[in-house]
Task: structure prediction
Amino acid sequence: MSDTITTGAPAQDTAFREDGSIERLTIDTIRTLAMDAVQKANSGHPGTPMALAPVGYTLWSQFLRYDPAHPDWPNRDRFVLSVGHASMLLYSLIHLAGIEEIDADGNKTGKEAVSLADIEGFRQLSSKTPGHPEYRHTTGVETTTGPLGAGAGNSVGMAIAERWLAARYNKPGFTLFDHDVYALCGDGDMMEGVASEAASIAGHLKLSNLCWIYDSNHISIEGSTDLAFDEDVGKRFQAYGWNVIHVDDANDTATFAKAIETFKATNDKPTFIVVHSVIGWGSPKAGSEKAHGEPLGVDNVKATKRAYGWPEDRDFYVPDGVREHLNGTLKDRGGKLRDAWVATFDRYRSEHGDLAAELDLMLKDQLPADWDADVPVFPADEKGLASRDSGGKVLNALVGKLPWLIGGSADLAPSTKTDIKGKDSFEASNYGGQNFHFGVREHGMGAVVNGMSLSHLRAYGSTFLVFADYMRPPIRLSAIMELASIWVFTHDSIGVGEDGPTHQPIEHLASLRAIPGLDTIRPGDANEVAYAWRAALEDASRPTALIFSRQALPTLDREKYAPADGVLKGGYVLADSDGTPDVILLATGSELALVVQAHEKLKAEGVNSRVVSLPSWYRYELQSDEYKESVLPKAVKARLAVEQAGPIGWDRYVGYEGRQITMSTFGASAPISKLQDKYGFTVDNVVKVAKEMLETK
Result:
C-alpha cells in the first residue's frame, strides 16, 4: 500500500502565515531556538530542525502519548531522533513540552529536563544538550543517536519489546502495553545498511506499532543526494512490506496529521511516511548543503527571523503561551492516559500478582531473589564441553526464573547454542515467542537488541566472534548507553579449524576489550561459563560480550583448583605452588586447561608455577591494588600469557620481561590439532618458553 497525500505547493513556496496562531508561534520558536543555539555554539546542524519543526510539533502536540511529569511511564510512546545531528529539534521539543528531569533511579530532581539555559549551552562541556542526543544524560532522550541508522534500528527493537510485553502481560480487561514507536529519519539513515536490515526485520514481523518518518530533503554534507543516492526509497520500503505514505510539504501540518492517523489505523504492517521538506526553510541558505552542518551566520539568522515575522534582535526568545500550549496538549492526553494506566496496574496487582511482581523487577532492572538457583555445577571432566555448549545449558537454566531474558542469533542458533529449548519463535503470528530469528543481519541485530534493552528486557544477540566486525557500532553504543545488552560470540579462535582464516578471529578480542565499559569475558571451562553468565546478568549498567569456543574444553576439578567464582573479579589464582611463584602462567578460554597442564608439568620438575585465569580484563581492572598484587605480584617478572588471539594488551600483564604465546598472523585451514602445533599452543611449548624465561633471569 502506498498513499500520496497531495499538499499543493512545495515547502519553500508555502506562504508564511500571518495569523499569529499558537501553532505558528510554537513551530517558529522551535526553528529560532535551533538557529540561535547553533549560532552561539558556532557549531551544529540548524537546517533539519528548521525544516522539521512542523512535523515534530504536530506529532508531539496531537498524537504522542507522553506525560511530561512522568517521562519514564512504561507505556509512553517512544520518539527516536535517528537523525541525531538534528538534536536541537529534540531539545527544543523537550524544553517547550516542560518535561521534568528524573535521576537514574526515576526520582524527580525538581529541575526541567532541558531549560532555556541548557539550550543556550548547546554543545558545551557538561551541558545537557550535547551535539547528539545521549541516553541517560538528558531526560526525554530515548536512545543515543548520531551514527546514522542506529536510532532507526533501535526503534525496531523498541517496537518488538512492546509486542512481547503486550503478549506476556496484557490480560482480559488489563491493557498495560499498547504504545507506539516513532523514529524520525533522514537521507543518511536511508543510505546506511543498518536501517535497511532493521526495516526488513520490521516488515517481516509486521510491526504495526512502528512508524518511521523520513525527511526527504535531498541534501547531504557534500551537496545534493543526487551525487550518490537516487533510488525510490518508498518503493524499497513497499518491498519490505511497509505501508508507505507520501506527504509533499513538511509545513502542511493538517496533511501530516492525516498521515499519522493512517498509521494509527493500520494494524498489519509498519508505516513509512515520506515527508518532503526544504532544509533550512525560510533562510537564505534554504535548500542548500550550507544549511546542513554549519551555522547560518549572524546576518542570515536575522534575515530568517524577519522572514518569519520574528523579533530579529531577540535570541532564544520563547513567546508567552508557547510552553504552556505544548505542555498542556501533552498533559491533557498523556497525563490522563498515564493516570488511567496506574489505576489499571493497581487492579492488575490484585488479580495477576506474580506477573505484576515480574514487571516491578524488570522495570527496575532487578533480578528475582533465586534467579540463578538452577544454574548447573559441572563435574570435573577431562573431555569436557565446548563453552558454547555449556553456555547454552546455563542460558536455558536461567530463563525459567528470568522469562524476560530473550534473544536469538544472526541465523546461527544451532551453532551458537543460544536457542531456548521448548519455547516458541517470536514471529508475526506469535509475539510471545522467546527465540528471535534476526536473519543474516548482524548490524541490524545489534541495533534491535539495544532497542529491546532500552525497554528493560534482558536481550541478547549471538553470532560467530569473527562477525563481531559487522556489529561493532551497536556494541559500542551499548557501552556508551550503559545498557545491559548481552553479546554472545562463539567460534572464538583458530579452534574453528578447517573453516580457515576468514572465520578464525585473531584481532577481535583486543578490539572488544578496547571498547570502554564493555565487559568482555572469555571463560576457560564450563563452571567459568556459569559465572560469566552470572556476571552478565547481575549488573544492568553495562553490556557484556561472552566469548565461547567451538571445541570442547576440559572441565577443571574445582576441588583441586580454585572455585570458578573468581570470574566475578575478572582474574584469580587458579592453581599455585608453595611459596612465591617462580613463573606465572596467564590464560583465558581454551588455553586455560593448556596452561594448567603445563603448570603440573613444571611443578613436577620443581618449578614453583602459578596459573592465573584472566577471563575479564575489564573486571580485573576494577579490583583494588591489593587484590591485583595478590594475583600478580610485582616482584615476579617471569610471566607468560597464552591466548589463541592477537597480542595487543597482554603486555600490561606480562610486563617488559614477560613473554607471550599469541597469534601475530592470520590462521590457516587445517584441523585444530595441526594449528595448535603450528602456532605453539602445546603443553611442551608452554613449558619450554617458561623455562627459557627462568634461565634468562
In short: The CA atoms of residues 60 and 252 lie 15 Å apart. The longest strand covers residues 210-216. The two ends are 76 Å apart (CA to CA).
